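Exercise 7.
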Amino acid sequence: MPHQLMAVQGDITSLAVDAIVNAANESLLGGGGVDGAIHRAAGPQLLAYCRDLGGCPTGEARITPGFRLPARHVIHTVGPVWQGGQAEEEAILASCYRNCLRLAAEHGLRSLAFPAISTGAFGFPLRRATRIAIQEIRDFMATNEMPMSILMVAFDEDTLGVIESTLQEVS
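Solution. The predicted structure, written as tokens, is:
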């Protein structure tokens, strides 16, 4: 099975993959957007597990079981809050993707689904964030022999359009 990178529209909490990525906050204790949706779908065990992790610094990632999710695991990462590009946001976002992919490889995970990290409440411009995501995923795939299927999951049609067009531009 070769590496595969695809854009899809849907609810990330419904995907039966090895791991879904949670665009979390530093506490890892749930919040709005995709973070809240993942916590609700996974059930109270996820919150209890995350309490024991003690949080996660921005740019890093942590892995947990998926509990009631169809995904076996959740990889939580904390993206940067957009501050106009003046606070190393691009480098921090790239680190989020690298750390998620590293954890996936360390745990032998072959299928992974990413949301558009930092593009919701954190305000990172979607096209810019998508370019970073695609570059980091492709760099990882170029140096990792383990076959992987990676989904970039858009919640709505507009986001899907941006991801699909950026995939074509960057290829």
